[in-house]
Design goal:
By secondary structure, the chain is mostly helical. The protein is built from 18 helices and no strands.
């Protein structure tokens, strides 16, 4: 073994065992960060920090930008849906690519550059076809980043260290969103919304610098896809049938599809409502909504990692799903710009918990199959179905019945997701369970 944990010459089972044991030793059984974390942990944190402002493109600022260009709510919803559909169709193949390739760092780098390039096209030429093209490029690139980062993380820390490292990844990600939103609000207020495009470009450069700190030899590409001792040879080839035969994976995907159908359009709709009413500076308001949610997501991500190790993933999903109907009811029944404070606090609860639980649970469900990232891509595909339909449906409801009705409509979707998850408890119980013994936590 090299001094920083790379094990380039051992067999796959030996490397998997050493990766888990090494991650547990570096992280500690409690999930606490080591006093002097290895460079790969610091690099993962910085990478997630800088990618926070890149992977989703303009996010809530897109609606504000297009409202300023005279776009109607339903038209905005349609182009956002187009981008979501593109990402949805690409996510499963991109997850398979993350399993099959050793060029995981290159996937992240190219995706970050594509997101910024697509957003700059939108800034320079905000006309229908080019806006649609921009959203398609952003959707595909954003879809590639998720499985690639999950694969890098698993390949660097192993299964035993995954829950704690996912918590740290998400905490860094939300800290990056917080910093980017604060800067976007300040620069947007002082210089206009075009300054947000400049900020995104600078964050992309930061993500490339962080990515360069992860050495290729530190990544165990077999562990990165979930392979372990005794894995059949056929698992080396990504195969969709492996995913379709996993009932727990299908339940998780359907549950998250319903959640994201209710969640995806809520924040952009809040910003659009304020931009239409003209009661607040829209860029500053959008930034404030993001800041509130991100401040909550940081401790929620760390809590989710701790709950996953001590109580299992089932309760993490229940808490996340329960937050969204309450959020929609508050936004729909309290017609005030100040409603965004409790609405975004609850957004922080749901997103902070799911950001850790989703990749962690997929890794548990598909452990040993070699299809972890393909499975994550499949789950993200169904999430994308819900997220892609959300803006168009919510925009349609808002155009005909008002924003309040649209928020209530979105919040109701998560109720069905919660019912499905609870009803399917017997199917997902084994995958959701906490590690049975301290030795399992440590990966021995």
């Amino acid at each position: 073994m090299t001094t920083d944990g790379a094990v380039p010459f051992q067999s796959r089972p030996a490397r998997a065992a050493v990766a888990d044991a090494g991650a547990a030793a570096a992280i500690g059984p409690s999930g606490a960060a080591p006093a002097h974390p290895p460079r790969r942990f610091r690099a993962l944190g910085l990478l997630n920090f800088f990618l926070a402002d890149v992977r989703d493109g303009l996010g809530p600022f897109l609606g504000i930008f297009l409202v300023g260009k005279g776009w109607a709510p339903d038209a905005i919803g349609y182009v956002m849906t187009l981008g979501g559909l593109a990402g949805m169709l690409a996510t499963t193949p991109l997850g398979m690519l993350a399993d099959a390739t050793h060029a995981k760092r290159l996937i992240v780098a190219v995706s970050a550059v594509l997101v910024v390039a697509g957003s700059l096209i939108l800034l320079v030429w905000p006309v229908g076809p080019l806006v649609a093209f921009s959203q398609v490029a952003t959707g595909i690139a954003g879809a590639a980043i998720g499985p690639a980062i999950a694969s890098l993380t698993l390949g660097l820390v192993g299964q035993a260290g995954l829950p704690a490292q996912l918590g740290r990844n998400e905490a860094w990600n939300h800290a990056g969103n917080f910093a980017a939103a604060a800067l976007a609000g300040i620069f947007g207020y002082l210089y206009g919304i075009s300054a947000i495009f400049v900020l995104m470009g600078l964050m992309a450069l930061g993500s490339l610098a962080a990515l360069s700190l992860i050495r290729p030899q530190d990544i165990d590409h077999d562990v990165a896809r979930g392979l372990e001792a005794g894995t059949p040879a056929g698992a080396h080839v990504p195969n969709v049938s492996v995913l379709l035969r996993s009932a727990p994976l299908l339940v998780l995907a359907a549950t998250l599809m319903l959640f994201h159908f209710g969640n995806a359009a809520m924040l952009p709709l809040l910003s659009q409502a304020v931009a239409t009413a003209g009661t607040f500076d829209p860029a500053a308001y959008a930034a404030l909504t993001v800041i509130i949610a991100q401040l909550v997501m940081i401790p929620m991500a760390l809590l989710a990692a701790r709950l996953a190790e001590t109580r299992g993933y089932w309760i993490v999903l229940v808490l996340a799903l329960a937050a969204l109907p309450i959020r929609g009811a508050i936004a729909g029944l309290w017609a005030s710009p100040w409603a965004m404070i409790p609405v975004q606090l609850l957004d922080g609860v749901g997103a902070g918990l799911l950001g850790v639980a989703t990749p962690g649970l997929v890794a548990r469900i598909l452990r040993g199959t070699g299809h972890v990232n393909a499975g994550l891509g499949g789950v993200m595909t169904l999430q994308g179905v819900g997220a892609a339909l959300s803006p168009a449906m919510a925009g349609l409801v808002a155009a005909h019945f008002g924003y309040g009705a649209a928020f209530l409509f979105l919040g109701s979707a998560a109720i069905f997701g919660l019912v499905l998850w609870v009803a399917a408890t017997p199917l997902v119980r084994a995958a959701c369970a906490a590690p049975a013994t301290p030795d399992e936590v440590r990966g021995h």
